[in-house]
Design goal:
Elements (H helix, E strand, L loop, with lengths): L4 H17 L5 H7 L5 H13 L3 E2 L9 E2 L1 H9 L10 E4 L16 E4 L1 H4 L4 E5 L15 E5 L9 E6 L3 E10 L3 E5 L8 E4 L3 E11 L3
Antiparallel strand pairs: 1-2, 3-4, 5-6, 6-11, 7-8, 7-11, 8-9, 9-10
Amino acid sequence: MALTRRQKDLLDYLAGFIEKNGYSPSYEEIASGMDLTSLATVHKHIHSLETKGYLKRGFNQSRSLEISSKYLDERRNYSGSPRMADLEVPLLGRIAAGSPVESVSNPETLAFKDFIGDSSTYALEVRGDSMIEDHICSGDFVLIEKVNHVRDGDIVVALVDGSETTLKRFYREPGDMVRLQPANSSMAPIRVSQSIVSVQGRVLAVLRKY
């Protein structure tokens, strides 16, 4: 689905509410049920979902939301795949990587939908050692969020001169220059004109298989 994670959550909430109650929730119930602090945010999500063809609503009616067949068809198509809500593992506590500390059980879960529930997220396999001092090693996988604008210091996928991509920390410098900084003290930074650098995304997480 071409939906953000929050839009998908809202559609799932609506489907569950309508199935249980036989009518659609009010905007206030949506805000309360999804822990949204603003009705304006609810309106924004609903307008976006209307535009994308996933919702229909009657004019000036608080309980007139109707889920379109587009969402229902796509949900059936995805029913054979693992649900995002199932992509969780128990988070049992914390462990020291320095001095030993008491291990404490903590009944929580780590939800991978926080990382992969958005269509703008993709993965890349790392090749090379330029980022090892940021604990990103050759063979690791990085989860990337597609963005056009990043902050100085972000780890980004940068396309240089339209032909070469590299994983580096991004810094703007005077004279309309960009510094792509490796996290490896044996390597020099790449300094190029900002006009030939295109940011393809920024790193959300690092995955490593042992």
